[in-house]
Backbone:
């Protein structure tokens, strides 16, 4: 089960509202490489994992991603708090505002709503772990691109923290893949799917 | 930075050290040095959390009761920036 802790994983303290930044950062909540997809992916995939250490890493990274979803939401909340109608119009935030006001809604920067396709849970141990390695790189590159677009240090600081975490998660998933392969036939890792086939 | 913010930063720092160490331990469950590190930051985290909760309100729901009040529901939420 899960319980909530009343703290953010890393401080988010933004002084200046900017609907323009909210418009692009929302992609890390509900976009193709966003935190909502990541959390749901790992917390779903763990049921197909036959090895305890791999179940543990998926559980704990998935849980951390829930905290990242909260951090991105806090960034969006602070960027859109006290924004003026003039700012909303000038920054092109009107297309979001008309449906969601300043509420938190998971969508990509392009406006495409969150898609369950990003969860990618296949029930195949090797396919899932390779998906996770790629997903961490894709989240990392999205944060790199956001950092290319953002000047405000109050916003850059938590984004840099989130980018670092993608790199650590990539390392841990690499170890999980190695541990999994050690338990399989080294001549043919794909001889059977330990999550489904009897042997 | 207010005293409350400083203390929350301490909680976040030690809690983060615990999270990061626990991910490492998931794939290295017999690493003695990491186990020692985990134990050390866990103690620091618990101490900082206790101090914060006594002064400023609950972080964990199990500590949400204060005297005759359910303080968990009435204290500030973490996405609000304090003025």
Residues:
């Amino acid at each position: 089960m899960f319980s909530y802790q009343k703290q953010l994983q890393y401080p988010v303290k933004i002084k200046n509202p900017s609907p323009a930044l909210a418009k692009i950062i929302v992609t890390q909540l509900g976009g193709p490489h966003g935190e909502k997809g990541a959390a749901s992916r790992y917390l779903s995939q763990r049921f197909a994992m036959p090895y305890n250490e791999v179940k543990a890493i998926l559980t704990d990274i998935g849980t951390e991603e829930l905290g990242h979803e909260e951090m991105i939401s806090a960034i969006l909340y602070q960027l859109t708090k006290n924004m003026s109608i003039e700012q909303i119009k000038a920054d092109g935030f009107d297309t979001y505002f008309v449906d969601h006001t300043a509420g938190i809604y998971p969508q990509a920067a392009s406006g495409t709503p969150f898609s369950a396709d990003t969860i990618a849970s296949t029930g195949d141990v090797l396919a899932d772990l390779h998906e996770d390695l790629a997903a961490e790189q894709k989240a990392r590159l999205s944060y790199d691109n956001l950092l290319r677009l953002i000047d405000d240090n109050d916003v850059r600081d938590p984004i840099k923290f989130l980018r670092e975490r993608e790199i650590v998660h990539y390392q841990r998933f690499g170890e999980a893949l190695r541990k999994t392969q050690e338990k399989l036939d080294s001549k043919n890792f794909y001889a059977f799917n330990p999550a489904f086939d009897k042997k | 930075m207010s005293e409350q913010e400083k203390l929350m930063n301490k909680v976040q720092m030690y809690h983060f050290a615990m999270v990061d160490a626990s991910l490492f331990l998931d794939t290295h469950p017999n690493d003695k040095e990491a186990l020692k590190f985990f134990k050390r930051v866990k103690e620091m985290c618990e101490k900082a959390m206790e101090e914060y909760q006594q002064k400023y309100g609950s972080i964990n729901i199990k500590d949400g009761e204060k005297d005759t009040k359910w303080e968990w529901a009435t204290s500030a939420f973490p996405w609000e920036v304090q003025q």
Notes: Residues 29 and 35 of chain A are 5 Å apart (CA to CA). Chain A touches chain B through 30 residues (CB under 8 Å). The first helix of chain A runs from residue 19 to 25. Chain A has eight helices and no strands.
